């Protein structure tokens, strides 16, 4: 990272950024260009490892690309505001980038993923009909590495 004073090393602070991020952008390998799609998500930490969950249709470009190559990039950010500096205008933000492997879930694992998505969207007690499972894909991304940074008025 070019500006090391902006890098966040504390895992709990990275998790706090993720908690406050409303949408992630999923980067999937395609040729000749990468494919990036915003998704609603949930997450949890299992054995000190970060996992993201998202869902979508059972057909489409995202499904085809993930079938070909499950290695993905995830980006999330929180925009705070713009700020005048002595020389220019800058953006105050927090962000993270994670890399991992995506897998399609089924059964109880898919139910867990959907519950994590609902929890992140502040629908903690919302029940859902498990009849939706055959018509929706639920994915899990097991994160292999994550970096985060922030720009505050002090750095």
Q: What does this 3D model show about the protein?
A:
The protein is α+β, with helices and mostly antiparallel strands and 155 residues long. Helices cover 20% and strands 46% of the residues. The radius of gyration is 17 Å and the shape is globular. The relative contact order is 0.24.
| Rg, alpha carbons | 17 Å
Described by strand count, sense and barrel closure, the largest sheet is: 8 strands, antiparallel
Contiguous uncertain segments of 5+ residues? none
What's the SSE pattern? EHEEEEHEEHE
What's the overall geometry? globular
Total number of beta strands: 8
Kindly state the mean pLDDT as a whole number? 88
| Category by helix and strand content | alpha+beta
Name the helicity range: 10-25%
**Count of alpha and pi helical runs:** 3
Report the sheet-strand fraction.
over 45%
Cα(first) to Cα(last) distance is 14 Å
């Amino acid at each position: 990272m070019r500006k090391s004073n902006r890098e966040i090393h504390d895992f709990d602070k990275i998790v706090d950024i993720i908690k406050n991020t409303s949408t992630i952008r999923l980067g999937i390998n395609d040729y000749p260009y990468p494919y990036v799609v915003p998704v609603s998500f949930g997450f949890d930490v299992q054995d000190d490892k970060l996992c993201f969950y998202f869902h979508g249709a059972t057909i489409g470009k995202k499904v085809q690309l993930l079938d070909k190559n499950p290695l993905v990039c995830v980006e999330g950010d929180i925009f705070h505001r713009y700020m005048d500096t002595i020389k220019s205008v800058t953006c105050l933000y927090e962000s993270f980038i994670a890399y991992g492997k995506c897998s399609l879930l089924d059964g109880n694992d898919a139910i867990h993923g959907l519950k994590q998505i609902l929890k992140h969207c502040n629908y903690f007690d919302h029940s859902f009909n498990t009849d939706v499972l055959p018509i929706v894909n639920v994915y899990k991304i097991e994160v292999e590495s994550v970096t985060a940074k922030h720009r505050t008025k002090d750095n």
